Amino acid sequence: VLFRSLDAHGIDSAQAVALYLGPAWPKPWPSYVERTLQTLGLDHLPRLRHAVCPEVLLMSVYGSSSVCPSPLQFHWLRQRLAPARLRGGLRLYLGRASASRRRLLNEHALMAALQRCGFTCIQDPGALDFHEQCRLMADADVVVAPHGAALSLMFCCAPGTKLLEIQTCSYLSSLYAWMAMVGALQYSAVF
What we know:
Layout: H1 2-8, H2 13-21, H3 31-40, H4 71-81, E1 90-94, H5 107-116, E2 120-122, H6 130-139, E3 140-146, E4 162-166, H7 175-182, E5 186-190
Parallel strand pairs: 1-2, 1-3, 3-4, 4-5
């Protein structure tokens, strides 16, 4: 509906996404923002700090958090960024080794146990290339991860992928539960 409304007003939806991102990020942009825009083919568009608009279309915040993507946004990203599954069957653990907070104290023991169960364990998913992160999520049948940014690429997962989020009692968030529901993933959380 949003993109149809934008088109009806003569606004290219791809440009609207780039313009929306423009004011939110400091310059220089973080490298992951640049890689995402390159993958979407939007890196050539100008980044405006301020714009004068004769008409403004606003979307309400969707979901339980101000950062929850709407179903439209989730599927828009899935269509444009999720690679086709090459093999499937992957059991994936995404760690938080380089995180400064919400780290698991026994993460090495957890990874050893998961590896014995056939999981591929990635200690620091953020150290991987953006496209490799997307590829891993697309090929995963099961994803286990502590709450963190690595789960934000779940739009690359195929519908039906099982997702287990490890949360802490001191920081509860329904963001990834919402995204999993929108993406038709099988979500569970442990605390």
